[in-house]
Design a protein that fits this description.
With 393 residues, this protein is mainly β. It has a single domain, classed as Neuraminidase. It contains one helix and 27 strands. β21 and β22 form a beta hairpin.
């Protein structure tokens, strides 16, 4: 997303205001308000504290934080529970040109530059523009997606790649090929140590520049070619992970170029205990489910609709709450939405960014999210002010 200059933080609604807002929304949408039910509804209604942790702007001026992950182990420069955040824009605020990953250490409140990659990289078609597709394996390797551009729009985008970094932030290998086209959404991962399964959405297939307009809608042309790709990875001892196989498990998802947001496409991925992969489809304003995600040998298409519309407003990044609910960042306002995937019920929404400079408040300000290790809260980024935040009970 194209970022505005850094502004002072707007105050977040307090618990009473947040509850009142949630009740109003629930009543409007026909949902059961939390205050009217006897049972405990979930996670978000108990989260009341929001703390600014650090700026994510680097010394080279990179900004627009996207991915948020928590380190599962200590390795190299990284300590277990460090938070890693990457940047999508460069100092000129051009999307698809950010090359840096910032680390934040909760134990000491220190911020450090974990990696700075070259803008041009022959092995990565189009160069480097770090996206929300990022993870760290138990073996210490960091894998991050590149969705690159030369002018900040999809008119000059490349197919991109997946970059493998060692735990000191040095580039070790690059994965690219015909099934990899703009790795976009946050990764879902099954990490077994010596092997791993990664899921990542590919949103770049068929996308033109944002000036190619669909005459029927007056909007940039929509393409239903985005995929969800499963990557099987081998992790040899003391060597970089090796890409063993690739399978498209989801296809036909909507994507569209956008001048303000670079592109709109499937973003959030979360793998359930029953082997169902949940996918946020922002353009169709829904969450879909792909069954048998780790074992299927063919695409499930766009899967089954779990929930749509209601509190959702361009759903983006997604993670699991301790109750087994999905926490979903909205892209078109500053709310985080809690969803029970078992029945598709939208439980609760909380404004975690209410910047009044956007309409609706917080529009375009949220992106990555990750649970804290104690599962009592979550980390998220506010793109409008380029900061890493922590929410807690």
């Amino acid at each position: 997303m194209t970022r505005h200059p850094t502004r002072p933080l707007s105050p977040l609604p307090g618990p009473r205001a947040g509850l009142a807002l949630a009740l109003t929304l629930a009543a409007t949408l026909g949902l059961t308000p939390a205050a009217e039910a006897d049972e405990q509804h979930g996670f978000l209604e108990h989260v009341h504290r929001h703390t600014t942790l650090t700026s994510t702007v680097t010394d080279n001026g990179d900004l627009n934080p996207y991915a948020v992950i928590v380190a599962p182990v200590s390795a190299g420069r990284i300590r277990q529970d460090d938070v890693l955040v990457d940047n999508f824009n460069n100092i000129s605020n051009l999307q698809g040109t950010g090359t840096t990953i910032v680390g934040y250490r909760p134990a000491t409140k220190d911020t450090y530059l974990f990696a700075r990659l070259p803008q041009s990289l022959a092995q990565c078609p189009g160069g480097v523009g770090l996206s929300t597709a990022m993870t760290m394996l138990k073996s210490g390797w960091v894998i991050v997606g590149s969705t690159p551009s030369r002018d900040g729009t999809t008119a000059t985008k490349g197919n991109g790649c997946l970059l493998v970094l060692d735990p000191n932030g040095h580039l070790a290998s690059v994965w690219s090929g015909p099934s990899i086209n703009d790795p976009w959404g946050d990764m879902a991962v099954v990490d077994r140590g010596s092997t791993a399964t990664l899921f990542v959405s590919m949103a770049g297939f068929g996308l033109p520049g944002p000036d190619v307009i669909d005459p029927a809608t007056g909007l940039p042309a929509r393409h239903n070619e985005a995929t969800v790709l499963r990557l099987e990875v081998s992790v040899p001892d003391n060597k970089p992970p090796v890409l063993v196989s690739q399978t498209v498990v989801g296809s036909g998802f909507a994507a569209r170029p956008d001048r303000d947001n670079f592109l709109l496409g499937p973003t959030g991925l979360a793998l359930g205990a029953d082997n169902t992969l949940y996918v946020t489809d922002g353009l169709d304003n829904l969450i879909a489910a792909i069954p048998d995600a780790t074992t299927r040998t063919a695409s499930a298409g766009t899967g089954r609709v779990v929930t749509r519309d209601g509190l959702l407003s361009w759903p983006l990044a997604m993670t699991w709450s301790p109750e087994g609910h999905l926490l979903v960042c909205n892209g078109k306002d500053g709310r985080l939405v809690e969803v029970d995937p078992a029945g598709g019920r939208q439980i609760y929404a909380q404004w975690i960014n209410n910047d009044q400079a956007q309409s609706p408040p917080g529009n375009g300000d949220l992106f990555g999210i990750a649970m804290t290790p104690d599962a009592h809260g979550f980390y998220y980024v506010m793109d409008d002010v380029n900061t890493l935040m922590r929410a807690s009970r």
